[in-house]
Please model this.
Amino acid sequence: MDILNFLGRLHPLVVHLPIGFLLIAFLLEWFKREKETKARSITIIFILFCGALSAIGVALFGWLLANDGGFDEDILFWHRWLGIGTAILATIAWWAKIKTQLKVYKYVLWGMVFLLLATGHFGGSLTHGSDYLLKPLLGNKDEITMKLPSQPDSIKVYKHLIQPILEQKCYGCHNAEKKKGGLDLTSWEGITLGGESGNTIEDGIWTNEMFKRVTLSQNSKKFMPPKGNPLKYSEITLLKWWIENGSDPDFSVIQHKISEETQNILMREYQIDSSPKSFVERTQVPPLREAQFSRLLAQGWKVQTLGETNYLLEVTSIRSDSMPKTNMDNLLAVKGHITWLNLRKTEITGKDLATISQPITFAITKQWCYR
Ligand code: HEC
Model:
């Protein structure tokens, strides 16, 4: 019935009333300097009355809300019964205060506050996840902290990108012990086995149950995850990318066909540069030794590195006569560094050409011009 559903949803709204009333009653009782006056006693009784009444109401609303389903059952169990316990103790405290049953009153009041705090804690865990309270202290798990390999060809899409998402948002309810819907997402076997309604991984993206669940309307009962943060747009895009490429457990980032959008997400969220690299960007060589450098300069070569941290070389001859053979041989000694050779001004002999045309390990461009 809709009205019951509505009342249930009042629970999070009014839940703070009994917390306020009961804590104030407890504090007034605790911080008492002089002897109890009549007026003060009546005030506390009145506050306890409001606290007990609202606690009973909130417990009822909570019971109705629990019918909505989708809560973690273990946490719900403790939240439900501790909450009911709080309402009962608040009522007893109110009664004991009226009847001046001081001994009972004292114990019950302490018990009530303890249950109140415990209920609140489990309530927070229900809606925010059980690690909500300590998360800021233990580090923000929402950020993916796993260290990624530095080369895109060693970054596995499933292991390094998809699994951490599932770990954060799904493992809580889909693990080996707690298989909600019969589904264990913590292992590759579990994923391929699927859940009660069959395979999680299927060829076409629109038949993939997992993808369907995370992209449903959030109001749908089947939306995943039913509690906690939904998947971010970037996470959904990565999941889709992985599924479209065949949901392979071993493929690396560069083995997947990639769209510009996915490329941008990898760059922005993970600092993975998956765009194809030119030879010069991919090649790492150590800097030339100082002695080699100065020898080349002395022999009529102008030598420049390609960048501040890129030690590949551009070499230009500044001699206008022919190059002595030893100068040419010196060049050979650093051939692994040379990407660009300019001999425009220099007289080139057939012997020089024989030297130059030796295979150069890293060369991408060799250019020389005859006069
Ligand atoms: C708070 C607990 C919870 C979390 C977190 C959660 N699920 Fe579920 N999931 C369930 C429950 C309960 C069911 C069974 C009821 C149903 O089918 O809706 C289920 C069912 C499923 C099913 C259907 C299984 C089948 O074969 O019937 C899939 C697929 C699924 N979840 C995927 C996910 C994914 C992906 C995530 C993470 C983004 C996730 N779930 C997070 C509780 C959860």
About this structure: The pocket of heme C is lined by residues 72, 169-170, 172-174, 180-183, 194-197, 200, 209-210, 213-214, 222, 224-228, 231 (CB under 6 Å). Residues 361-371 have pLDDT under 50 and may be disordered. Residues 261 and 340 are 35 Å apart (CA to CA). The radius of gyration is 36 Å.
